[in-house]
Specification:
Chain lengths: 367, 200
């Protein structure tokens, strides 16, 4: 892959990065996303991010924020700590970084948000909360820690609720009830805020999809929801009433099974389409459109709340969509800077500001 | 690379907290260079701290073997106020304020099931006994403001509830002399939560 590469995208609008498979298109997006998140959207394996044979990778971006230049740098060794700098000043907190380089990533893996396990949908909500809501971000960190402490305590209890176990459980349950309620509340508010964006985003994508003849409409309405035509988002708590009493009533079962059987870590974001559960009762095309609509909704909400659109990174989205949906997606994107990769041609009618062949932007290691 | 005593010294130093292989090597070579009597004093100090130091039988602070710690043996300290901390080092921190004239109780840790620490591993029973025996009127819960410290404080508050004693928790807030703009949002958020009315 690249020994080094440099890219100067259009300062506004979409820059298309073209090239055959394996030429390094995703690597370019991955590098940009890494600057803002210290994370790869493709893999958690550091060795797989850094070029084979090299001991570290360096990413550097010059941004203009309100006309002022900002220099953002990251150095990631194959092992050890990633070091990030903004204007040559080290940044330790990831939140500060996500503010310096806010990014939204669309990737083919997003399908898992609709189709996969509830954890994928919780992650979508939680990643957004971490950007938008400091208090919820703290609650999420604490929730994770409380759950791990409680799990350890339940394991040590060995299936029996001895009095001293009960008194210590009381303490962790009180913390869990507090932070859990904060998380559930924040997620519910977020879902309410996202819903209108998802509905409009989906309908613009789906209408184009119907026009292109790729949407299924014959799936029967599932039980448990009113049959309608639109998308309905519902945050499903794994408990009713207040979390403290739910934990109390499940305590015997939790102790017996050695796991916390209720709480925000068991919640789900239910996405219904015309009354159907889209996890199982939606066509591939509908699921793809929904995945994009969800991601797009997050992008629009973050844009609205932060006052400026995050940098958009669209990895290989056209391969998943017919030309009608592709046009609708690009048209639905808020004003701002976007990088988009494609292995095929850009679908007709999709507007872009610049196009770059990935094979021309870097120096590569000899094969 | 090195043999014999030098190797052994580097290995031992490398086991100390905060000392990596390179620091261990640097310290070992420094010890090699210093006069024998300096090295002897260092070795004697290490041995002495193991031989002559135990935990205070009353508050579990560090103390000279067989004796109460400096705070507990100081007659001028107020026995009616107890400050509960996780670690003897926390006593040093509180003492630096020169504002606390009561006695301490060192838990020797905080509740942390992940590390296998429950109430039985902490000096909780001893605290409850002391509150009754020493006639304490107030217990200040001075555990760390992190999840485990807060959970420990909450646990102690529950256990102390039935006793006739006022239980207080230290406040969280901004460092004095600092700038708001450099405060992290979590601390600042806590400080806002705990704001107080200003009376003119």
């Amino acid at each position: 892959m690249f020994v080094e590469a440099a890219l100067e995208p259009a300062s506004a609008g979409t820059t298309v990065i073209e090239g055959p498979n394996g030429a390094g298109k995703t690597t370019v997006l991955e590098a940009v996303a890494f600057l803002g998140t210290q994370r790869s959207f493709r893999t958690t394996d550091r060795e797989a991010i850094v070029r084979a044979g090299a001991t570290s990778a360096v990413i550097r971006a010059e941004l203009a924020r309100d006309g002022t230049p900002v220099l953002v740098e990251a150095e990631l060794p194959t092992s050890g700590r990633v070091r990030s700098q903004v204007n040559r000043q080290p940044v330790r907190d990831r939140r500060d970084l996500s503010r310096a380089v806010p990014v939204t990533v669309f990737s083919p893996d997003d399908l898992a948000v609709v189709r996969g396990a509830p954890g994928n949908r919780r992650d979508l909500l939680d990643d957004t909360l971490r950007i938008l809501d400091v208090r919820a971000g703290l609650a999420l960190d604490q929730l994770d820690r409380v759950l791990r402490q409680r799990a350890a305590l339940l394991r040590q209890a060995g299936g029996r609720l001895a009095p001293e176990v009960a008194t210590t459980l009381d303490v962790w349950d009180e913390r869990l009830a507090t932070v859990g309620a904060t998380v559930a509340e924040a997620r519910t508010e977020l879902v309410t805020a996202l819903a209108p964006f998802v509905v409009t985003g989906y309908s613009s994508l789906a209408q184009e999809g119907v026009a292109a003849g790729s949407s299924l409409t014959s799936t029967p309405a599932g039980p448990g929801g009113p049959a309608g035509s639109g998308v309905v988002l519902t945050y499903r708590s794994s408990w009713t009433g207040d979390l403290a009493s739910a934990l109390a009533s499940r305590r015997d079962e939790d102790v017996r099974r050695g796991v916390t059987t209720t709480g925000p870590h068991r919640d789900d974001l239910e996405v219904r389409l015309a009354g159907r559960d889209t996890r199982t009762q939606a066509s591939q095309g509908e699921q793809r459109s929904l995945a994009l609509a969800l991601r797009l909704a997050v992008h629009r909400l973050v844009t609205e709340r932060l006052g400026a659109p995050p940098l958009l990174l669209l990895d290989d989205v056209f391969s998943e969509l017919d030309p009608g949906r592709s046009r609708a997606l690009v048209a639905a994107l808020p004003q701002g800077q976007a990088l988009l990769t494609t292995a095929g041609p850009v679908p007709a009618g999709v507007a872009f500001a610049a196009r770059v062949d990935v094979r021309t932007i870097g120096r590569r290691a000899a094969p | 690379m090195y043999t014999g005593p030098l190797r052994a010294l580097i290995d031992e130093l490398g086991r100390l907290p905060g000392i990596g292989p390179k620091s261990a090597q640097r310290i070992a070579f420094h010890v090699l260079k210093i006069p024998g009597e300096d090295a002897g004093r260092l070795a004697a100090a290490i041995l002495a701290v193991k031989e002559r130091t135990t935990l205070c039988s009353r508050c579990f602070n560090v103390a000279e073997a067989g004796e109460l710690c400096d705070v507990c043996s100081d007659e001028r300290r107020d026995p009616t106020v107890l400050c509960v901390v996780e670690d003897p080092r926390d006593i040093v921190a509180v003492e630096r304020t020169q504002q606390f004239r009561g006695r301490y109780h060192v838990l020797q840790g905080a509740l942390n099931p992940l590390e296998g620490v429950g109430p039985d591993q902490l000096r909780v029973r001893e605290l409850l006994e002391r509150v009754g025996a020493e006639g304490a009127k107030e217990v200040i819960l001075c555990t760390n403001p992190n999840l485990e410290g807060e959970a420990t404080a909450m646990y102690l508050a529950r256990m102390l509830g039935p006793l006739e004693v006022t239980v207080t928790r230290i406040a969280s807030g901004l460092p004095v002399g600092g700038d708001l703009e450099y405060a992290d949002e979590l601390t600042l958020g806590r400080a806002l939560e705990g704001r107080r009315q200003v009376t003119a």
